[in-house]
Specification:
The complex is a heterodimer of chains A (167) and B (106).
Chain A: E1 12-13, E2 19-20, E3 26-30, H1 36-51, E4 56-61, H2 73-82, E5 90-92, H3 97-102, E6 106-107, E7 109-113, E8 119-123, H4 137-147, E9 162-163
Parallel strand pairs in A: 3-4, 4-5
Antiparallel strand pairs in A: 1-2, 3-7, 6-9, 7-8
Chain B: E1 3-7, H1 14-27, E2 34-38, H2 42-47, E3 55-58, E4 61-62, E5 79-80, E6 86-87, H3 92-105
Parallel strand pairs in B: 1-2
Antiparallel strand pairs in B: 1-3, 3-4, 5-6
Helix pairs in contact in B: 1-3
The chains are: A alpha/beta (167), B alpha+beta (106).
Chain lengths: 167, 106
């Protein structure tokens, strides 16, 4: 999927069994439970969801749970429960169809869609998974632009993380 | 001293670990080549007792021993830096400590 293209729509269940999909300006982050890069960026992404409550924020776990049981739907539910809830839904992409449709490569891999559902940013949350001070700045810059109806100055960066675990 | 770096290409972390490892060996005055071992299948992961990428072994000893329950598989290891942060690579000071200890025991 190229910048400016219409992003696939979808509906996936969250850890409470409710279905969610893109709606208005939307962040779709492919992520998981077991990857150190995803875990390193996790708190920063939660904070983005809290700070931009006018944006639909969807975390999607597409990993093969048979080979990686820590990414099972049950493990996802346990994680959210242990954290006392997340500010955004954590969705299970059991068939991996959504991850394939988006061309997700890593966890994390961040996609920002505008209000018309077109892809406006794709890549990493920021430049350093170890530096909390980065505050997911690339994602925030993209959201600031897209919420104003503008194209982000930095539309694409290289996603960094563990490979998506395909079946 | 036999130094091995076992890695899997599903994690982008081994080049950084190799760099850290070479620097630590140089700074500690240890002359040793680093053998790079690519792990490519679950079978090989079991044979190599590979808990994830990257894994550094010196004279067969994992420099950051995994928990006993850690399964052997093609996965990315989760390390903790000394300041508590999660990291895909071991803390260089853990590498240094292991190099010093194993070197002193020889």
């Amino acid at each position: 999927m190229q910048i400016g293209e219409q992003a696939p729509t979808f509906s996936l269940p969250d850890t409470d069994g409710q279905e969610h999909g893109p709606d208005g300006v939307t962040v779709v982050v492919f992520t998981c439970n077991h990857c150190p890069y995803a875990l390193g960026w996790h708190e920063r992404l939660l904070q983005v969801a809290r700070d931009y409550d006018d944006v639909t924020f969807l975390a999607v776990n597409p990993n093969d749970a048979e080979r990686y049981p820590t990414d099972s739907f049950d493990a996802m539910k346990e994680r959210v429960q242990a954290d006392g809830g997340w500010p955004h839904p954590y969705l299970r992409d059991e068939s991996q169809e959504v991850a394939r449709a988006y061309g997700a490569k890593t966890t994390p891999d961040v996609f920002v869609l505008d209000a018309d559902g077109r892809l406006r940013y794709r890549g990493a949350p920021d430049s350093d998974h170890r530096d909390a001070g980065q505050r997911a700045s690339w994602l925030r810059e993209a959201l600031e632009a897209v919420r104003e109806g503008e194209a982000p100055a930095r539309a694409e960066t290289t996603p960094v993380g563990c490979s998506v675990k395909w079946k | 001293m036999k130094v091995e770096l076992l890695w899997w290409d599903g994690c982008p972390s081994h080049p950084e670990t190799l760099e850290d490892l070479k620097r630590v060996l140089r700074e500690e005055g240890v002359e040793a080549d680093v053998d790079l071992v690519e792990v490519e299948s679950d079978d090989q992961a079991h044979r190599e007792r590979f808990p994830g990428s990257p894994t550094v072994r010196i004279d067969g000893e994992d420099v950051v021993p995994p928990k006993e329950a850690e399964p052997f598989s093609l996965t990315c290891r989760i390390y903790r830096l000394r300041d508590g942060r999660i990291s895909p690579t071991p803390d260089p000071e853990d590498l240094r400590e292991a190099v010093r200890r194993i070197n002193a025991d020889r």
